[in-house]
Amino acid sequence: MKQVAPVYGKDFGPGFAMFTKSDSNLISNGISWFGSLQEAVTFSASHVVLVVNHLIGIEAAAQGIQYCRIDQRIEDPGLQIVFREPVDLTKKAAGQAIDYAVSRIGRPYDYSGLALGFPLMIASGLSKWIKPLRKFPVPFHLPGSRVCSAAVADDYKHTDQYRDEPLLRNWHVSRITPVMLWNDFPFKPFRFEEH
After folding, report:
1. CB 118, CB 138: distance < 8 Å
2. What are phi and psi of 84, to 5 degrees?
3. At 59, is the secondary structure helix, strand, or coil?
4. Among 109, 135, 139, 136, which residue's Cα sits nearest to residue 121?
5. 121 in Cβ contact with 138 (< 8 Å)
6. What are 126-180's pLDDT values in tens digits?
7. Where are the domains of the chain?
8. Of 2, 81, 111, 193, which one has the fewest beta carbons inside 10 Å?
9. What's the topology of domain 17-189?
10. What is the pTM of this model?
11. Rounded to the nearest 5°, which phi and psi values hold at 111?
12. What ranges in the chain are assigned the alpha helix state H?
């Protein structure tokens, strides 16, 4: 798929979330598929990165929470990428989210949550009906570890501006999937999302 390259400062900046999907990657497709079972979404992302600057982001990936190259992702023709800006994002909030993400560099990836917890949570649907479950970690979650969407949600939760958002207040961050972050965090809408 041919995409228009996003421009730093216009299309994305510090504190934005970068949502990605690879059509040729089985894991990416699996995450997107499981996410779409949970709820409808306009872009079925499988990975989320917190933007630090025009070159660097912070992600939870196979090696744990780490820095990554945003510019290389933008140049990858096999990736679909959408940047989302939180509503009313300030420099202070972006800085707080980035500072918290940096403090977690080196923490492990939540393989058990991804492989066992998310499928069990989505398949059972219990957290939709039993609201107190939302406050507990996803089943089989390793404390301190994160999947990508949980890491970015946790970064936003550690800002003065977004910590009281309903998604972050009502759900344990380990339960927040890319689809939930896309749909339920207060990002600026796209034209195709406005009603």
Report:
1. yes
2. -125, 135
3. strand
4. 139
5. yes
6. 566 677 777 877 777 788 889 899 999 999 999 999 999 999 999 889 888 888 8
7. 17-189
8. 2
9. endopeptidase fold (from Nostoc punctiforme) (3.90.1720)
10. 0.84
11. -60, -40
12. 26-38, 70-75, 91-103, 111-112, 118-124, 126-129, 148-157, 166-170, 178-184
